[in-house]
Amino acid sequence: MGDDRDWATVLGVPDEDREDILGAFDASVFEGRRYRHLTDARHGIERGTAIVDGRVVRGFPSIPRTLVLDPGIAEHFDGRLTVEEKRNGYNVRVARIDGDVLGFTRGGYICPYTTSKVRELLDPDSFFEAHPGLMLCGELIGPENPYTPHEYPEVESAAFEVFDIRDRESGRPLAVDRRREFCERHDLAMVPNFGEYDPAEATDAVREVIGDLDREGKEGVVLQSMDGTRQLKYTTSATHRADLEHAFSLPFDYGRDFVFPRILREVFQAVELDRTNGESRQRAQELGEAILLPAIEAVRAVERGETVGEDHTVRGDPDAIEALLSHLREMGITLEIQRDRRVGDERAVSFVKVSQATRDNVENYLDGQLIDE
Amino acid sequence: MGDDRDWATVLGVPDEDREDILGAFDASVFEGRRYRHLTDARHGIERGTAIVDGRVVRGFPSIPRTLVLDPGIAEHFDGRLTVEEKRNGYNVRVARIDGDVLGFTRGGYICPYTTSKVRELLDPDSFFEAHPGLMLCGELIGPENPYTPHEYPEVESAAFEVFDIRDRESGRPLAVDRRREFCERHDLAMVPNFGEYDPAEATDAVREVIGDLDREGKEGVVLQSMDGTRQLKYTTSATHRADLEHAFSLPFDYGRDFVFPRILREVFQAVELDRTNGESRQRAQELGEAILLPAIEAVRAVERGETVGEDHTVRGDPDAIEALLSHLREMGITLEIQRDRRVGDERAVSFVKVSQATRDNVENYLDGQLIDE
């Protein structure tokens, strides 16, 4: 499946630009193996693209969002589409290179924790024996998660659900039916599926699904054309609020970038989905609470001298846990370990990613520092 | 009073930098008189500084803000201070050059409307006869206002209230008592005054004043050391909400820049002034309403095909009105005239400053345009 082709040929990079473009990639090491990955889209190559032993693992494309279901869906799709749940975890690509299964984060980093989890959760060998040139694209979800922990009642620690299967080099997706067939055959969990629709009927169906997901506090949906090539996402009000609550619990780390786009999503969702002004007023009040109350609590926590940051728990192979903690520290993140214990063969660590910007800014403003405008 | 000194000497510009620095100034013409003004601080010279016939009119300094009264006030002042109302209009400097009274906006533009208004409202000749080297700094308030119209029950059309008197060239302020004495002697209206305090007692006094102003929907306070040299501002929750309501009535013109700083003001004000969690929840709900409801209404207005923008009414000398409208159009603002009539000798025009960014963005998103994230 093209494993021996040169990375530059695969990525369409002219020979004379090789060095230049390779310089845009970060260099890292995983299990003694040097590799390169692109943390931001550059030179027309997707963010997250990695080169491991000369082999290309193509980045996962960003999925566009619509602010209105009608006419957003009809504008974007001209044939049947499938509606699947957008799960709240982190995007992982799983590929096998030289016999080793590896887990890549969105930015193309081979994450030791993710790799260890997918090896443990997936048993993907039967899949990669049959399809060495493909990669599994999915969401790593669950409460024990170093990036975006989120509770799903059915997930105790962490789980991996496939939402796409793509050619590792070209990034070309399988058709939806084929992807499902492959997952069933190789016993790979898939994201929940809400059915297939014509564009004209999809709007009503998605409205109903979104209403249910919103009540359950779930994230939203991804729509995909049956050939796999077109995707579109749309999220619930519960997610907009949860994002804002999280962002404003650390206002100086996340607040500014988070607030405006999520307000816009709520504005257009209200115009499209609210049936009364009372519903919009309720939505507005909940938006305000999602913004202000966590920020007030963050200021009070800093005032009390408490550490502010994001709480995570991870559990797994001790070496993988150690490598994850080292990686986070190398990224400049200050960790405060809250609990560190053995559970059988595994190590379970609860830690806070300390939010320096929020702590420092809040302290300064509480001390009377002025703002010059 | 130094009127014959060279502008470069007054501004401390070395001879060899003259041309370079002059190039940073915009060139304009008012009543046949060419002048230059600095729309942004550059080369250590304040924004709004103007050079008219070689004479310098110094820019008005920005007043720092505190997010907490305690210890913000005590940190910033070491002696007695006066508490005055911050009025909601636009900042104007009035100076006399070669016998002509001129009104300068914050950016140093000689505004024909402002100039005509201050000539009509102030009768400042007795002041400038006595003090040709000073300038009056004040707020032009009232509903008939091309920049920030705001209702004050006592103001029918427009009024000018002095909050500072400064040396026109150096920008050095008069002491507060002197400023008040000069205003009384020359019959110049002043901003409302809430008394003088030691820093230690000012916090409680300002809390009480802010509570009253908040209930009346007024903007806030400016604190000033008795020698005039130190200033500090603090605003009401009613103002944060009114700003957000205005900004989110035109979300793509103002929303992004407005939202985060005002949320911060509310966060710290809540931590300092709210006595119960219920009060903070109420504050949060009102914040959410101030953000979301005007934006929903703006989207609905665009959906109905209505013009969105800021409504203004101006009234005055027909030549000044014509010059103002030309100026706004030259600034690239699209005006939609709603009403244009004569009232005695005066011309009264109601117009909308059309908000292209909000109209275009809302139309596009309603048409299903995708957002790539």
UniProtKB/TrEMBL annotation, chains A, B:
Gene3D superfamilies: 3.30.1490.70, 3.30.70.2160, DNA ligase/mRNA capping enzyme
DNA-binding listed as a keyword: no
Origin superkingdom: Archaea
Any one GO MF annotation of this record: ligase activity
Boundaries of every RNA ligase domain copy: 81-233
Record-annotated RNA ligase Pab1020 C-terminal domain positions: 246-369
One Pfam family matching this protein: RNA_ligase
CDD domains: Adenylation_RNA_ligase
Keyword check for Flavoprotein: no
Keyword annotations from UniProtKB, A to Z: Ligase
UniProt protein name: ATP-dependent DNA ligase
